[in-house]
Amino acid sequence: MLQSPVDFFRELPKKICVECGQIIEEQAESYLMECDHCLSKRVE
What would be one Pfam family of this protein (predicted)? Predict the structure, then answer.
């Protein structure tokens, strides 16, 4: 039986920041691997 696309995306695991381990609240098109807090501490 095929799973609906909505259910598929709803069941994906939460993305976790590789720096601090906090769950990342993100947009669907985001490829970030760090949370906003850790990104703001980075020096460019």
Answer: YhfH
Q: For residue 6, what are its two tokens?
A: 């909505």
- Over 80: is that where the pLDDT of 26 sits? no
CA-CA distances (angstroms) from residue 40 to 10, 13, 26, 34?
Answer: 28, 24, 15, 10
Residue 2 resides in a domain:
no
Q: What is the pTM of this model?
A: 0.64
Between the alpha carbon of residue 34 and those of residues 7, 8, 15, 29, 39, the distances in Å are 25, 23, 9, 14, 6
Q: 7 in helix, strand or coil? A: helix
Which range of residues forms the domain containing residue 26? 15-44
